[in-house]
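ARCHIVE CARD
Drawer: 12
Card no.: 0347
Subject: one protein chain, sequence and derived structure
Cross-reference: see card 0346
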Amino acid sequence: MGGKEIGVRSDVFFTFYFLLSTFYFLFSGESMIKKRVVLTFPKEIVEQPITCHLIKDYDLIVNILSAKVNPNEEGRLVVEIGGQREKLAGGMDYLKGLGVSIQPLAQDVRWNEAKCVHCTACIPICPSDTLSVNREQMRVSFDSERCIVCGLCLKACPYQAVEILF
């Protein structure tokens, strides 16, 4: 019961901190840069509060777009990180010092409608609702603006109608 209260306070703290940081950048005149990156964590550090340190110690805004984190396994986060240039560089150095692999999110997913047979196998696994189905027509559609390049649809599609472009 006590643990739940701490979790709620933590959520309130981070929401407040996120709003405060956003207002700071909006009204301070300092330019904020954003990067979309893929962070791969060695299994030895996957349970450490690394994202919390990025927010608290480097004044960064971290928006988690996709996550696969399990105890004792390599973890992967797709994030958008924003902040002042020097602080962002410091945060990246902190991650590299921990052994976290940082790759730019320079990938793009392409859906090939000609290959798609609209079997809808990709629909339930798409976490961002990039792939959706019109139930009346039973036709799949793809909204590239929503895609977070998680790659789950590639594994689900038996007709290889989805591919990642580098």
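Annotation on reverse: The first strand starts at residue 33 and ends at 41. The longest helix spans residues 2-28.
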